[in-house]
């Protein structure tokens, strides 16, 4: 991966400027899902509209997953639930279930995006949301589909 999102966490406006000055293939020349990774970066830096525009055009579970996260952040629980249904059982769910258990959410065995959606609507789960973002971003930015 040629882009380190952590470099811009304290300076999201700079991160957005970098994203707007390039494209997915330039940022992630070897990624198997560069557009999906780009949608995640826009979401991370507060580029909600850009993230949404990109995610809605990606007809894969990863595009649907980013779309769900965008609507969860909005917050629009019913729209997010619709997009989570489009995702189905995603390959990052087992790792996410384990990460969530470390923060006292879930049993560590099964990830339920709908239950977590309710937790988020109550203003909780921030650490797990960060872990979820990282897992999905890493999945999309990987050189080969994991």
Commentary on this structure:
There is one protein chain. By secondary structure, the chain is mainly alpha-helical. The chain has one domain (32-141). Helix content is 62%, strand content 0%. It has 9 helices and no strands. It has helices spanning 12-20, 24-27, 34-44, 48-55, 61-73, 77-87, 93-102, 113-121, 126-141. Helix 3 runs antiparallel to helix 4 (48-55) and helix 3 (34-44) packs parallel to helix 5 (61-73).
Defining traits:
146 residues; mainly alpha; 9 helices; globular
**Which class best fits the helix and strand makeup?**
mainly alpha
Q: What's the tally of helices?
A: 9
Query: Which of globular, elongated, flat, extended, rod-shaped describes the shape?
Result: globular
Radius of gyration: 14 Å
In terms of DSSP E residues, the strand content is: under 5%
Produce a short descriptive summary.
The chain has 146 residues and is mostly helical. The chain has helices at 12-20, 24-27, 34-44, 48-55, 61-73, 77-87, 93-102, 113-121, 126-141.
């Amino acid at each position: 991966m040629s882009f380190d999102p952590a470099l811009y966490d304290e300076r999201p406006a700079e991160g957005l400027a970098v994203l707007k000055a390039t494209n997915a293939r330039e940022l992630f020349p070897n990624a198997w899902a560069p557009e999906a990774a780009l949608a995640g970066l826009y979401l991370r830096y507060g580029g909600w509209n850009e993230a949404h525009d990109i995610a809605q055009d990606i007809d894969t579970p990863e595009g649907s997953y980013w779309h769900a996260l965008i609507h969860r952040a909005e917050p629009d629980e019913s729209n997010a639930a619709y997009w989570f249904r489009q995702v189905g059982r995603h390959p990052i769910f087992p790792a996410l279930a384990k990460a969530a258990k470390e923060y006292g959410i879930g049993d560590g065995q099964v990830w339920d995006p709908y239950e977590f959606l309710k937790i988020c609507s109550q203003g909780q789960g921030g650490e797990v949301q960060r872990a979820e973002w990282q897992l999905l971003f890493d999945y999309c930015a990987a050189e080969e589909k994991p």
